[in-house]
């Protein structure tokens, strides 16, 4: 069972989770992070580090966010690894708590 990044990360893209990951399983897109399910070792460390609570165990992903399981797997094959924390987008705080952000995802 891998962990999954969900909609709350879109346009926030805080990278606190990246620093704590012992296996570098995060992949970076323009305005979203995903977890490579083939690399994730289910350590749970990233969950507590996410300031927008966007990361869930695959079995615990809310029903409204289940599409993100496949999306993480798909995009992890396309996007490069991110292994160091970066500054979030300048408007990240404005996007915290905003729902229905999937349409803003940049592939």
What is this structure's SSE topology?
Blueprint: E1 3-5, H1 16-20, E2 26-28, E3 33-35, H2 45-49, E4 55-57, H3 67-76, H4 92-95
Antiparallel strand pairs: 1-4, 2-3
What integer value in Å does the Rg equal?
12 Å
Counted by DSSP, the helix tally is 4
Q: What is the H/E order?
A: EHEEHEHH
CATH architecture verdict: 2-Layer Sandwich
| CATH third-tier fold name | Alpha-Beta Plaits
Distance, first to last CA: 24 Å
Assess the beta-strand content as a share of residues: 5-15%
Mean pLDDT: 97
Question: Into which percent range does the helicity of residues fall?
Answer: 10-25%
What structural class should be given to the helix and strand makeup? alpha+beta
Spans of at least 5 consecutive residues with low confidence = none
Number of strands: 4
**Overall number of structural domains:** 1
The coarse overall form would be globular
The largest beta-sheet arranges its strands as: 1-4
**CATH class bucket:** Alpha Beta
* Most strands sheet: 2 strands, antiparallel
């Amino acid at each position: 069972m891998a962990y999954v990044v969900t909609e709350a990360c879109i346009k926030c893209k805080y990278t606190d989770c990246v620093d704590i990951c012992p296996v570098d399983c995060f992949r970076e897109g323009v305005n979203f992070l995903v977890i490579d399910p083939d690399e994730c070792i289910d350590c749970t460390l990233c969950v507590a580090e996410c300031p927008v609570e966007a990361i869930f165990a695959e079995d615990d992903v809310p029903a409204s966010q289940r599409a993100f399981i496949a999306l993480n797997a798909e995009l992890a094959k396309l996007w490069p690894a991110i292994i160091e924390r970066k500054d979030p987008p300048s408007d990240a705080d404005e996007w915290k708590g905003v729902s229905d952000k999937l349409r803003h995802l940049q592939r």
